[in-house]
Design goal:
Blueprint: E1 29-33, H1 37-49, E2 53-57, H2 60-67, E3 74-78, H3 86-96, E4 100-105, H4 110-118, E5 123-126, H5 131-143, E6 161-163, E7 166-169, E8 174-176, E9 182-184, H6 187-198, E10 203-205, H7 206-214, H8 224-236, E11 246-249, E12 253-256
Length: 262
């Protein structure tokens, strides 16, 4: 059973106040990948009432068919699919699109969440969840700058950054090592690394880093930056560098300290 505020699984109604919300959300296209028809239908109606364009798919084949004719701005992806691994679908979407990804699952263990985030998800919602919370998370993820426009206007001409053995391309959410192997980044990892590249050797505390990558987003635990830094460090360690590129500063701060950044 999917427990959400004001709604039971057998209900066909939406929370009070949502029926009148029909303004389009800047033509934002959301994909729902969910095998339960009742849950899928409920989420679709809810998001449509919020003004989003919504499509649904049951599996990878359905996602690939949709991608041939439509771009996807955000995907709500259930991990527990009967015939396929939701993590594999997450990886497929990250490799083939610029869509934001929110994983939705009854798996609430921290390791399951980390696995989804490591594969490219931008957020993770555990069932049961509140529909209004889901709507807020969708808005928050969509507010984060698109990879093409993460950089401020003054830095818009920068297409890539080189440091140590890495080439970082924000527009592709990717790192390339000296062997040419591509390391995919999530949207949050891209935002963090871009902020660090633009401010190399500058010490930031957690709150300052969160402000750089999340703007004025509210109710975000400053400790979330620790998990994000940890994930990015693991990816930057693939080239075998002995010293950490992102150093921890006593007192709760971080500094990006490459040999050079250009």
């Amino acid at each position: 059973m999917l427990a959400v505020s004001h709604i039971s699984r057998s209900s066909s109604t939406l929370p009070e106040g949502y029926e009148a919300v029909t303004q389009p959300q800047q033509d934002i296209h959301i994909l729902i990948v969910e095998d339960d028809p009742e849950i899928c239908g409920l989420l679709k109606r809810f998001l449509q009432k919020l003004g989003y364009t919504v499509s649904t798919a049951l599996n990878l084949a359905g996602v690939e068919t949709l991608q041939k004719s439509h771009s996807i701005d955000l995907a709500l992806l259930d991990i527990m699919l009967p015939d396929e691994d939701g993590y594999a679908l997450c990886q497929h979407l990250r490799q083939t699109s610029e869509a934001r990804i929110i994983m939705v699952s009854a798996l609430s263990d921290i390791h399951d969440r980390i696995s989804g985030l490591d594969l490219g998800a931008d957020d993770y919602v555990a069932k049961p969840f509140d529909l209004e919370e889901l709507a807020a998370r969708i808005r928050a993820v969509l507010r984060r700058p698109q990879s093409e426009r993460v950089a401020p206007a003054a830095s818009a001409a920068v297409q890539h950054y080189r440091f140590d053995n890495w080439v970082f391309e924000p527009s592709k959410r990717a790192l390339y090592g000296k062997t040419g192997i591509r390391v995919a980044l999530t949207g949050s990892e891209t935002d963090l690394l871009l902020a660090l590249c633009q401010n190399a050797h500058h010490v930031f505390n957690r709150t300052e880093l969160l402000s750089l990558i999340r703007g004025d987003e509210k109710n975000v635990d400053s400790r979330a930056i620790d998990l994000l830094v940890s994930r990015l460090r693991r990816k930057l360690s693939h080239e075998g560098r002995q010293l950490e590129l992102i150093r921890t500063i006593r007192g709760g701060g971080y500094v990006f300290d490459p040999d050079d950044t250009k």
